[in-house]
Each structure stands twice: as C-alpha cells, then as structure tokens.
Design a protein that fits this description.
- The complex is a heterodimer of chains A (142) and B (933).
- Chain A is of the alpha/beta class and 142 residues long.
- Chain A has one domain: Glutaredoxin, CATH 3.40.30.
- Chain A contains 3 helices and 5 strands.
- In chain A, helix 2 links the parallel strand 1 and strand 2.
- Chain A starts with 10 loop residues before the first helix and ends in an 11-residue tail after the last strand.
- By secondary structure, chain B is mainly α.
- Among the domains of chain B are: 82 residues, no CATH class; 82 residues, Alpha Horseshoe (Serine Threonine Protein Phosphatase 5, Tetratricopeptide repeat), CATH 1.25.40; 97 residues, Serine Threonine Protein Phosphatase 5, Tetratricopeptide repeat; 100 residues, Serine Threonine Protein Phosphatase 5, Tetratricopeptide repeat (Alpha Horseshoe), CATH 1.25.40.
- Chain B is extended and about 155 Å long.
- Chain B is built from 49 helices and no strands.
- Helix content of chain B is 68%, strand content 0%.
- In chain B, helix 14 runs antiparallel to helix 15, helix 28 packs antiparallel against helix 29 and helix 34 runs parallel beside helix 36.
- The chains are: A alpha/beta (142), B mainly alpha (933).
- The interface between A and B is medium-sized, with 29 and 31 residues.
C-alpha cells in the first residue's frame, strides 16, 4: 500500500514537506517499503490518510535513500513514525519510554487516528508533548 | 513556505537543490533517547555541514587563531627559542636579585618579626586565644568526650510557643449546648399549652405586642394636626379647611419648621442672652425687637407680645419698636398700639403709613393719611399715598396743587400735577415747577414731551407746517433746558442724557428723544476722531438695546458732522433698511450719495433698492448718476449690465459691457462679458472675448474655466477644452477648481485613469486642499462604486492630509456602513469642531432614522453655523418636503431668501448653470433640493 502514499526522495523534500503545512500535522514514516513491519504500518496509514486529511498529511521516507536523519532522529528501528506540526517535532507519551516516535507497526486504524488527532489537538494549542489516549507499554517491550 | 495553497505541494515534483544539508534549512534539532544506540547529537553534524560546503564549492575559511601557542598566547617573544645566552642572562638577573635581597637582610627580618609580634599582641589569633584551653583538652577522657552534648540547630526559627498548649475557659453556652445536644424535648411548655400549640407569642398580650390600631390612630392624629395648622393659617382669608391649595399643600408642609434639639438649645441660649441684653441696656430698641422676634420664632407669641410691650414702654421714641409691636398683634390691637405710637413719635412717616395700611376701608385710610399730613405736611411719600387714594382727577389735582405749595422742591409731585392738568395749564405748571426746581432735567424733558404731544395730536387739524414748527419748539425747549441746567451747575453726563433719550423713546416720544440726542450727544467730546468712534458705538449700543429712534438720531447728528464718512452712511443705510421704510432709506441714500459720491456701495445699494421696489427706470437713473461720478468703477458697470440684462435689454447690456471694457479695463468685466455672451449662446463671440481677455490677464483662472466649459459643454470639443484647462493649469497651478474641472472633463470623456493622474498632480501642486481630495475620492467612488476599498482608502488618506475638513469627514461618514455611521459622526464633530457640513450630515443621519424633531433641530444648527452654505438649505428643504408641513417649508424658504446663500458645491453648480440665469433664490433653492441626492 506504500505505493499510494507520497514518498519523499531527499532530505530537502522532507524539510519542505514539514515546512509546507501551516495547520496540519505532518506524519512521516521512516523505514523501507519492503520491510514487513513497514508494510503493516503503511497499510494502516493508507487506510486513515483519507480520513485524517483535514488535519494531517502522511509521507513516507526510505531511510536508505535518505540517510540524513538517521542519526539525528535515531532511526534504527525497521519502522518509525514521527509527527511534526509547523516545523516542530511533536512528542507523544505512549507509555513505552520513548516519547519521540512510534517505533512499531500499528494495525489498528482507529487507534492511529486517535493518536494523530491527539497530536493535532495538543500541537494546535502549542503543546510540545501530548499524551496518547492509549497506553502501549504492555503492547511493546524493549 | 509557499503561501499559495495550489503550489503548497509543488516541492514534491521539484528536484532537491544540490548539496542541501537536511534539517539545516528548517533548523531541526535531534534528540537522544538511548545513548547506547546513537550519538548525543543535535541537528546535522559538523562533518555533514563541512562536506556540503565543500561540495558547494565554498572554500573553508582558515582559522586565524589556528597556530596560536596554547601556553603563552600574547608574549612578545613567545614564538622564540630559548638559547644559551638567554639562560646566562637569566642567571645573571637572578644573582642580582639575590644580592639585593641579602643586603640588610638580618635587620629587615628582625623588624618584620617585631611588627608581626606587635600586630599579634594587638589582635591575637583565635587559635592563640584558646591555646591554653586546647592544651587542657589532652586531659579529657573518652567518656567525657562522648558526653559532650550535641550542638542544637541554632539557625532554626524560634517556634511559636504555646500555640498548642495554651488553654482557654470553655464558655457556658458551649457547656449548656453540649449538655442538651443529645436531648429530645417531648413536652409542650406552659405558654404553648395555654395557647394550644405553636402559635406565635405575639398575640398573648405581652409588652412586645405591636398595636397597629394605636399606630394608625397616631398617624391620623398627626395628619389632623397638620391639617388644622393649615386651615388656621388660611382661616383669615376664608375660614374653611377646604380652601387648601392642593398645589401649595406640599410646599407649605415642607416649610413648617420642625425644631431639632440643637435648635431648641440655641433658642434657650439666645433667650438668656437677650434677657441680659434688655436688662442691662433697656433703652436699646433693637434688643427688645430681637428678643421679641426670638420668642416669636420659638412659637411663643404671648411671651413675644409681652416683651415688645415692655420694649414700647422703655423706648417710646423708637418707631421700629412700635412697628414691631403692631406686627406682632392682630389688626385691632395694632391700631390701638399705633395710635399710642403716634402720640410719642408723631413725626414718623413709617408709623403713619403702617397705620393707614391697617385700615381696610378707603375712607378710613384717607382719614388716617389726612391726619398724618396735618402732622407731617412735608412728606412727599404721604402726599403721594394720599393722591393715589383719590379716585377723581380734580380732587387729586387740588391735593397736588396744595402739595407743591408745601413742598415746592419735589419734582415728582410737580410732574404728577402736570400730568393731571390740561395741556395749557400743564405748561404753566411746568413753568412754575421750573422756577421752583431749576436743577431738574426731568421737568425740561416733561416739557418737551408735552410739546410733542400737543404737536402730534391728530384732532386739532393743524397744518403740516405748523406741526413742524411746533416740533421745532421741542428742540428749542430741550436745548434751552440743557443750557439752563448748565447755568445751575447741573451737569448730567452724556450717558445719562442718552439713557433719558432712550426712556423717552420707549415711552412714545420719539421727537423728544431726538431733541435730547441733538442737544446733548455732542457734549464732552472735543476730538473729531473721538467723537466719531463714540457716536458709532453709541448708535450701535442703542440699536442693540432696540432703541431705533435713539440710534437714528445719533447717526443723523453724526452725519451732520461727518458727511464725508462713507461707513457712517453705510451704517445709517443699514439701519434704515432693517427698520425704516423704503422711502426713508431712499431719502437717506440720496443724501448719502450727494455727500460721498465716490462710495460705490451706497450707489449700488440705492439702485438695488429702487430695482427691488420695481422702479427699473429709477434704478437706471441712479446708475447713470453713479457713472458720472465713478466712471472707472467695475462694480457699477457690472450692476448696470446686470440691471439691463435681467430686464431683457440685451443689446443695451452688450453695449454697456463694450464700453465698460474700454473704460474700466478690469478682469472681472472681461469675465462678465464672456459669461454674458455665453448666456446668450453667442459662443464664438464669447470665445473671442475670452482669448482677448486671456492675453490681457493670463493669471486670471476663471477665464480658463469659462473657456473650457464652453468648449466642453456647448461645443462638445473635448480636445479644445483640454487645452484650455491645460493652459489654465499652467498659468495658475494653485487653483483647485481648474484642476477639478480638468479632471471632470477627463472623467466625462471616459478616462478615469487620466483624471486620477491629474488629481494626483493637483494634490502635489496644491497640498492640503480638501476639495481636491474630495474630488479624488469621488472619482474612485464613481469608477468603482460607493464604499469601495479604493474610495475608502483615498478618503482615509485625505483625512490624514486634512484632518479638520468637514467635507471629507461627511464623505467618510457616508462611506461607512449604516451601524457605524453614528460613532463616525461623533468623531467627525470632534475633529472638525462642529463644521456646518458635519452638522448637516448628522441631521441627515437623524432624518434617516426618522427622528424628525432632532433632525430639524440639527438642520437649524447647521444653518446657524454658516448661513452662506446653500447645500444645507437644500437638504433642509428636502427634509421638510418629506416630513414637514407647508408652513415649515415656507419658513425654510423665507429664511433662505433672507440669508441669500452663495456657496456650497451643489448650490454653486446649480446657481451658475446657464439655464438658471436670473432665477431667484427661492427657485434656485428648489432646484438645489432636487439636485441633491
């Protein structure tokens, strides 16, 4: 399903994508299209991208083609999803200990929508850290 | 970030710029979650940036501090090598230092030790102070060391002591409450049992009962007392309590004095004071009166009467005491008291008058007064009272005759007698009076008035000559009077005389007034200039007080002295115009032009007056005479032309203009000729005239305007008009009207852009001109509709340039949407300090809201602020046509006619239109009213 979502081919494009949105959350999935985890995630993302298009936009980035952010954003997991709002990285407390990103593949569309909506509501109020509606500490363990 | 939503995502299809450093462009910063899996780095790394720089071809800038010695950064020889000779030099220096140090070393050290010891002795070290104790520590055992108590925390704040351990006595109520806390009351108490349950105890007849019946009765009683007071105070007149005046009831209630404690205390003290006063000084009448008054004030009439009675006994010679006594008693007693008083103080007029006042019957009054006159025959007051009581004239005359015999010096009595006598006898009476009182000016004036009355009486059938002669006598009398008075050292000032004159006028003797003015207005004034100014100001002040006759007389007298002063003539003419008849005005003006033949204004005024009376031939005659004396006056020429033109004598008018051009060669005459030609639709000749005129007077803007208008409106020759205006603008760049006309021409031609440019230039040439700004805003409005953004911004700029302009403010008010207009208008009123245009606009706002009365009031205010503004009149008439009655419309028209407005944008354009030549103000007003939108 990654085929239907827009890809960002370079670091510049990533930056532009983040800067271009004035009032929508920019959701970026870092990973590889061929990765099974990413495939799951992309499936979910594609499923919701239409539904959240009023307040969020989804992009995919291949971390092999675009290695620029690997160090900066610690992109060492097979699948990472990060949120930006008006050129600001929005952190989210998922209960996993890593508030910077979602680094597992989600398969529940409603949960993802809820997360993005929470991010949008918090960020538009000026928050830098929002609390996820659901605790994922049991779901994902390090 | 691109703002355009269409292009927002355009970057997706764009190639990335070469050697872009990811994250740098947006200032991204990284994070470290787990140091075991990644470096703690923020943003793009140094190496990445350097690499990108190299790729981009930027040279790395060399660091200037790169080769700096880290140990010795700034030494002079920091970069040199340390050689053998350097080492030797250092050694020699050290030896020198050592040698210097060893000199007198022992003594120096000894001295230093000394100083140190001394210092220590003065301020020993703490260690030394406790040295002996410290030594004793060696004997302390381990147990003793252990049992040394710990030092407590001395820094801790002192705890508030006893907050918790302070005890209080428990109040009884708590104990009792606590005792009955758990109890239940299961039995009714005695009261409840007696009254059958839980009724309120108020009905059981105890002392706390509120008896409403009694309260009501008390109130009734109070009211009845008040009513009694009222009825007793009015009882003397009617004796009925129903005669209470319902309106005066409340006010009289509030005037009833209720004495407070303080007042009563005051009264007590005052009573004591007065008591001691009358005791210590019983012959002092005011003391008695005051004491009586105090008692009266305190409401104790009996005591007051008693005191005043004693006062009368003690001071029988004081009339005041007697009068006070009479006042305090009722009518009959007062009579007795005054009868007593007369025996003691028979010469007191006051007491006699009071006694007369006490009598209700006229006969009795007369009797009292006669008696009084027997006692005091020289009292003018008594005589007057007596005469006033007489109802028949002969009796009064006899009384007065007797009175003047007894008191020959009383002017009043003489005058009264003269008034009662027949005219012939009055004369002799006045003569007698004059002899007995030679110092009275009233008698002289009365004589003058008598003469005037005689002269102007209708029924005698005198001829005019005789009447005039008799009136001359008035002058003579007053003149003789003034002389006579001066002989007797009676010197009234001019102002006093003028006041007398004014009084004469208001009492209906204009001739006497005139005579007084003639005889006296020249007094006290020596210098010519002084005289002139004083007379003018006198006349104006008399006019201001509404004494037209006096003013006229003063001016007439002044004109006799200064026949060559044209402003004086003008003043007199204005007076006649407003207050006199047309014939008197004409007579005055004819005299005026005889004396001051050069005064064009007077000539024009005379001609206009004649013309207004419908006497065209007379007007013409006047103008002919005026030409004889003032051949060069353009005003007279133009007046003549106007007269002829409006009376249909076009040929004559044209001829006149031709002659005027040759005789009085002024720009206005040339302009009027052109206008005249244009009005007759002789456009070619008008243009010819104009071109000649422009050669003669190239700086006169109106010529260009007329030229341009003829081309544009009548000949439809836009290019020619454009050149005319362009020439005009070149010749007179400071004339806003020319600029506006030029811009309108362009706009009319469908070239709004050009009009705009022209106006912009105009604004540069004539800065801060409200008309130019208004025109610019209007151009915007016309081209893009009212209230458009351009028009609004133009108006805003205009208001910045001319913040006090009423015209611009009113435009900006109308440009607002309706709800905000009101607040805008308040701003405007404040900023433009009640400009009549703004006031008119406010009136129109009220009109829109159907607040008719308010709108009318504001229109009136606007008109009052500036009568010359025709547009306001137009708006008002329009308003009245919609909401007012016929009468209101008529009032507006009439007032407008008298104001003769000449300005206002619409008014001027309508008034100067060729089609409306020769229309009256009233017609123009109607046209303006229609033209206003």
């Amino acid at each position: 399903m990654s085929y239907f979502l827009p890809h960002l081919p370079s670091g510049w494009h990533v930056d532009e994508a983040i800067k271009s949105e004035e009032d929508r959350v920019v959701v970026i999935r870092f990973g590889h299209d061929w990765d099974p985890q990413c495939m799951t995630m992309d499936e979910t993302l594609y499923g919701i991208s239409e539904k959240v298009q009023n307040f969020a936009v989804v992009y995919l980035v291949d971390i092999t083609d675009v290695p620029d952010f690997n160090k900066m954003y610690e992109l060492y997991d097979p699948c990472t999803v990060m949120f930006f709002y008006r050129n600001k990285h929005i952190m989210i407390d998922l209960g996993t200990g890593n508030n910077n990103k979602i680094n597992w593949a989600m398969d529940n569309k409603q949960e993802l929508i809820d997360i993005i909506e929470t991010v949008y509501r918090g960020a538009s109020k000026g928050r830098g850290l929002v609390v996820s509606p659901k605790d994922y500490s049991t779901r994902y363990r390090y | 970030m691109s703002k355009d939503p269409k292009n927002k995502l355009a970057f997706l299809s764009m190639p990335a710029p070469a050697s872009y450093v990811a994250g740098l462009g947006r200032g991204a910063s990284g994070f470290t979650t787990r140091s075991d899996i990644g470096p703690a780095r923020e943003g793009p790394s140094e190496e990445v940036i350097a690499e990108a720089r190299a790729k981009r071809g930027e040279e790395e800038q060399p660091d200037p501090e790169q080769f700096q010695d880290p140990d010795n950064e700034y030494g002079l020889f920091a970069g040199m090598t340390y050689e053998a000779d350097d080492e030797e030099a250092d050694r020699i220096y050290e030896q020198v230092d050592e040698a210097m140090d060893s000199r007198r070393k022992i003594r120096r050290e000894a001295r230093e030790q000394d100083e140190l010891n001394k210092h220590r002795a003065e301020r020993p070290k703490i260690q030394q102070q406790f040295a002996d104790l410290k030594r004793g520590l060696s004997s302390v055992t381990d147990e003793e060391w252990e049992s040394i108590p710990e030092v407590g925390n001395l820094t801790r704040r002192k705890k508030r002591r006893g907050e918790n351990d302070r005890t209080y006595v428990v109040p009884d109520s708590v104990i009792v409450g606590d005792r009955s806390k758990g109890e239940f009351e299961s039995a009714l108490d005695a009261g409840q049992q007696a009254n059958g349950g839980f009724e309120t105890p108020a009905t059981d007849g105890s002392g706390t009962l509120t008896n409403f019946v009694e309260i009501g009765q008390a109130r009734d009683k109070l009211l009845s007392i008040k009513l009694d007071q009222l009825s007793s105070s009015t009882a003397s007149s009617s004796g009925l309590s129903t005669s209470i005046d319902p309106k005066g009831y409340l006010t009289s209630l509030s005037s009833i004095q209720i004495k407070s404690d303080a007042e009563i205390g005051d009264i007590k003290r005052a009573r004591m004071l007065f008591d001691s006063l009358v005791k210590s000084n019983p012959k002092h009448a005011p003391g008695w009166i005051a004491a009586a008054c105090l008692e009266e004030h305190a409401g104790r009439m009996v005591a007051a009467r008693k005191i005043i009675k004693m006062g009368c006994e003690q001071c029988p010679k004081s009339e005041d005491v007697w009068l006070e006594a009479a006042r305090l008693h009722n009518n009959d007693d007062a009579k007795v008291i005054l009868a007593n008083a007369v025996q003691h103080v028979g010469q007191s007029v006051k007491i006699w008058l009071a006694a007369a006042d006490l009598e209700h019957d006229v006969k009795a009054k007369k009797r009292v007064l006669r008696k009084a006159l027997e006692h005091i025959p020289t009292s003018v007051r008594l005589w007057k009272e007596t005469v006033n009581l007489e109802s028949s004239a002969p009796d009064a005359r006899i009384l007065l005759a007797r009175a003047v015999e007894v008191i020959p010096a009383s002017v009043e009595l003489w005058l009264a007698l003269a008034r009662l006598e027949t005219p012939d006898k009055a004369k002799s009476v006045l003569n007698k009076a004059r002899k007995s009182v030679p110092t009275s000016h009233e008698i002289w004036i009365a004589a003058g008035r008598l003469l005037e009355q005689e002269a102007t009486r209708e029924d005698t059938g005198k001829t005019e000559d005789k009447r005039a002669k008799e009136l001359e006598a008035v002058d003579k009398t007053i003149e003789a009077g003034v002389k006579e008075l001066r002989r007797h050292q009676v010197l009234l000032t001019r102002d006093q005389w003028l006041k007398e004159a004014e009084r004469c006028e208001s009492e209906g003797s204009p001739r006497t007034c005139e005579a007084i003015v003639k005889a006296t207005v020249g007094m006290e004034l020596e210098e010519d200039e002084d005289r002139y100014d004083t007379w003018v100001s006198d006349a104006q002040s008399a006019l201001g007080r509404g004494h037209i006759g006096t003013a006229r007389a003063i001016l007439a007298y002044a004109l006799k002295f200064f026949p060559e002063r044209r402003d004086l003539w003008r003043l007199a003419a204005d007076l006649e115009k407003t207050h006199g008849t047309p014939s008197s005005l004409d007579a005055l003006l004819s005299r005026a032009v005889e004396h001051v033949p050069n005064a064009e204004v007077l000539w024009l005024m005379r001609a206009k007056e004649r013309w207004m009376q419908g006497d065209v031939a007379g007007a013409r005659e006047v103008l002919v005479k005026a030409f004889d004396t003032n051949p060069e006056s353009e005003q007279i020429w133009l007046a003549a032309v106007k007269l002829e033109a409006e009376n249909g004598e076009l040929g004559v008018a044209r001829e006149l203009l031709g002659r005027a051009r040759s005789v009085a060669d002024t720009e206005r005459i040339w302009m009027k000729s052109a206008v005249f030609e244009r009005q007759q639709s002789q456009y070619t000749s008008a243009l010819q005239t104009l071109s000649t005129a422009i050669q003669k007077f190239p700086k006169f803007p109106k010529l260009y305007m007329i030229q341009g208008q003829i081309y544009a409106q009548h000949l439809k020759n836009v290019p020619a008009a454009r050149t005319a205006f362009a020439n005009g603008i070149k010749a007179c760049p400071k004339e806003p009207t020319l600029w506006i006309l030029a811009s309108r021409l362009e706009e009319h031609d469908g070239k709004s852009i050009k009009a705009r440019a022209l106006l912009e230039k105009a604004r540069l040439a004539v800065p801060k001109d409200e008309r130019l700004w208004a025109e610019s805003a209007r151009v915007e409005e016309r081209s893009s509709g009212a209230g458009s953004a351009q028009a609004k911004s133009m108006l805003a700029r205009a208001l910045q340039e001319c913040p006090t302009s009423g015209l611009l403010w009113s435009m900006s008010i109308w440009a607002e949407p309706r709800p905000t207009r009101k607040s805008r208008s308040v701003d405007a009123l404040k900023k433009s300090s009640d400009d009549p245009l703004i006031v008119c606009t406010v009136a129109r706002l009220f009109w829109q809201e159907r607040k008719i009365e308010k709108a009318r009031e504001w229109f009136r205010r606007a008109v009052k602020a500036d009568k010359d503004l025709g547009d306001v009149w137009g708006w008002w008439l329009k308003f009245e046509k919609q909401h007012g009655t016929e009468e209101y419309q008529e009032i507006v028209k009439r007032e407008c006619e008298s104001a003769e407005p000449r300005h206002g944008e619409v008014w001027q354009s309508v008034n100067k239109d060729d089609r409306n030549v020769g229309k009256r103000v009233r017609e123009v007003l109607e046209l303006v009213c229609e033209a206003l939108a």
